[in-house]
Amino acid sequence: MDSLKDFLKEGEKIDWEDIKNVVTASALCKEKDPIDKAFEVHIKLCQIAKTSTENTKAIEKLADRVDDFAYDLLDQVKRIEEEELHDEAADRYASLFSEMTAKAIAKGRKKFVSHPFIFKRVEKRWKLGLSKEFQSRPLHRILLLLIMMLDAILTPVMLPLNAYVSFKNQQGTNLTNIQGIYAKYLETPYVIFMKTQFMQLIFIGLFFRISMIGSSIAPTVEESFILLFFIGFVVSEIQQYRSSASKVYLRDIWNYLDVLIMLVYAFVITVRIVTVIIGGDPYKNRLLELAHYGYGFDGMLLILRFSSILELSSVIGPLQLALFHMCLDLLVILIQFGFVIVAFSLAITKCYTAETSFLTPLNSGSNSVEYCVEGSLNCFFKSARQLVWSVFGMTHFEEMESVTSLTSDIVVFLYLVFLVLSVIMLVNILIALLTTTYDKYKTNAEMEWKFSRAVIEEQYRRMHLVVVPFNIISEPLKALYFAQFSDSLAKKKEERTVKYERFFKERFFPKITERYKKKYKGSFPSTGDRKLDKLGENLNSVRNDLEELKNQVILKLELVIEQLQRTSQGDPTLSKFSQEKEDKRRSKERASFVEEDEGASPSSSGDRKLDKLGENPNYARNDLEEMKIQRRMNLERKLELLIEQLQRTSQEDPTLSKFSQEKEDKRRSKKRVSFVDEDEGISPLSSANRKLSTSVEEVQIHLTQGEQAQEETENHITGTSQMQNFPQKDGQDSHL
Length: 736
Prior knowledge:
Layout (H helix, E strand, L loop, with lengths): L3 H7 L5 H7 L2 H5 L4 H18 L4 H19 L4 H6 L13 H9 L3 H4 L2 H11 L5 H5 L1 H16 L1 H17 L5 H11 L1 H24 L8 H23 L4 H4 L1 H26 L7 H21 L9 H44 L16 H16 L13 H39 L1 H17 L9 H14 L3 H33 L6 H44 L1 H7 L5 H6 L12 H12 L3 H36 L4 H4 L5 H6 L15 H43 L7
């Protein structure tokens, strides 16, 4: 076996070593359509894993890597290329990535469909045909909703215009500006979806009305409208199934509910036809009663079906999908619970029937005890009801008491065992199972929701333009037209699809496969590579944030410098002083006025003291010396506290006993305090010592910042002093 083609044909007959050598990333990259080939290989590997008894885990792992290959391949599309992939000719019939998405949906590739590159195009096709204003602005969206509601109601009036626009599209005739806008509006999947939901709401209103009125043998007006709606509903489901891609219709869980609704109504309409034929009175008419039970059940299902509109929300949609999967787990528990109910009900019923035989003579006419007075079968169902209600706390054991004490004791024992199994075990298992299911699907909620959205978009993009029930008029007309003439739009779709495939094979796939091979060296990425990619993305994000912060700081500094320059130009003394440089010795000798422990910011404190010190240079010098002494005393006090804390910690850690006996000199304490093992890079101290060293480093950082603030404040003070001395040197009187 030398190629993937041979593997797809005879994969079940090949051993694991050959599979591992053939199914590689390099082999997939050599294919003309590596993504579609990856889908086929993944399905084949899953089939082999189900039937094989050797290396099952390894085959499943390889299948997961092949599935990830298609996802990772799309990661190689750069932003510049993504912006260039504009499909100006895209419509509801065909677009650049629509066929690729349809294949992924049909094959259940949820991870691939949830890729941002694919899902962005799904969202774009969802509202393709609407202007940007109607897609984003709230007021325009409200106006669009009103237009869609009015359009759905006036569909019979608008049918001639719809037919005229569709006919001109088929003929390839140029439409006017208004006709073109209306045609795009009609073909938008979002518009078709919302109009369908609105008509479904009217459908539910009819069921609500029929639930509020009594039964009658003759068909009512509400039943006639419901019949029209159901005919259109069935026609729509058939068209939807025929037009959708392979298995896409079955990927939508709501379609199963649609099938159930149609089956229930088929039962209802059959029973109603029988009741109309038989005639009679609604009184004691069981068939008529069953038919109206069906109406109520169908109304319930339609209301649940209407909740599918919540899937459009990225917040509620994932939770709704999680509830569906939880219902499947609930069904498993209910089936097991049903077996337990039947088993214990049968045992309890047998106790009563045995007691009946024990208490009744052979020639006696009575053959039942009080609990089973209605017969053995009714006794069985009665026991089952008692057991079911007891799960919900509604226990009526006094109704199950028997004549003899032995039978009562056995029934009580069986009842207690049932409560232990059902309430304590089954209910708690159900809670644990539902919690696990919810957590699992909550983790993959985004992927599940995106896949569901893609399925909805794919269905409504192919759906008939006219909504239920008016499609019972348009669908036959459409069938008659295509029976006489060919579908020109379908031919254009095929031509564009061929053009798209050529673009993928000649331009798109060669670029991204080359980047993939260069990045991963022609192999499937390992878990470490994925973590490195994720770490690289995080580092790039942090780097961008730091760069943005740096630019903001530079901009603020430029504004401050510009303001200082304007100030210096307005004051000649400042202008003269700004031309002279302050020597380093003088700037290092003088300290700034920074309130170290309790005080306000250095800028506000320094500004207040500058006003005061500017009055007398000698006072400034004295105050500088006092501040330097005060600052030195504060530093010594902090270092003494740190040494005391270090000594207390050393008493807990014997490795510090020698260090606690010696005093750290000031030169060494100002440089750094570090307890790091030089060879291994691991601290020999406890977590408390590491926290202490961290606090010392923080103090040093604050000291450095304080020294910088002092130098800046000193420059301002020096400038003020020299400005005061300039007039004195020129022989003028000093006001100081």
